[in-house]
Amino acid sequence: MHCPNCHASIPDDSKSCPNCGQPVIHVRDIVDAELVDHPHGEEPRGGFHQRVVFMQSNGSQLLPSCQMGIITLALAFAMGLKFGLLACIGFLVFSGIARVITFAVNIQLAMMGRTINPLVLQIFSWFCCWSLVAWLAS
């Protein structure tokens, strides 16, 4: 096996390169990707460049996106039971718009090097959608 940083030959089971000290992440451990700038502000010869570093997840995600979708549908169903079919459709429309906005906010924050828990944005968008539709329906 070769070090991805200095290309020195290293043992297959090493956690870091003995030559340069760079952590070595094996293919079976790759879970999430993260964009990282070059160390010390160095730019490669081709101009601006970012490399993708793969991080190992600890499996502590609160709500995967499929569960967030199920909760959104459950809230839309509850909205429909409380205010009617039009309110249910309105909740789904506003929820879709909020999903696009939260995606754009996550991308913008990621480009600035900051992150926010997606669950916080999702709960805020559910609250805003519910409040807006309840206000419109009453």
Explain what you see.
By secondary structure, the protein is mainly alpha-helical. It folds into 2 domains: 1-60, no CATH class; 65-137, no CATH class. The chain is 48% helix and 7% strand. It is built from 3 helices and 2 strands; from the N terminus they run E-E-H-H-H. The chain has helices at residues 65-83, 85-111, 118-137; strands at 32-36, 51-55. Helix 1 (65-83) packs antiparallel against helix 2 and helix 2 (85-111) runs antiparallel to helix 3. The radius of gyration is 22 Å and the shape is elongated. The termini are far apart. Residues 45-62 have low confidence and may be disordered.
How is the topology of this model organized?
Elements: E1 32-36, E2 51-55, H1 65-83, H2 85-111, H3 118-137
Antiparallel strand pairs: 1-2
Highlighted features:
138 residues, 2 strands, two-stranded antiparallel sheet, mainly alpha, 48% helix
Distance between the termini: 66 Å
Helical stretch tally: 3
Low-pLDDT stretches: 45-62
What is the rounded Rg? 22 Å
Q: Which class best fits the helix and strand makeup?
A: mainly alpha
Mean pLDDT: 76
Give a nutshell description of this structure.
The protein is mainly α.
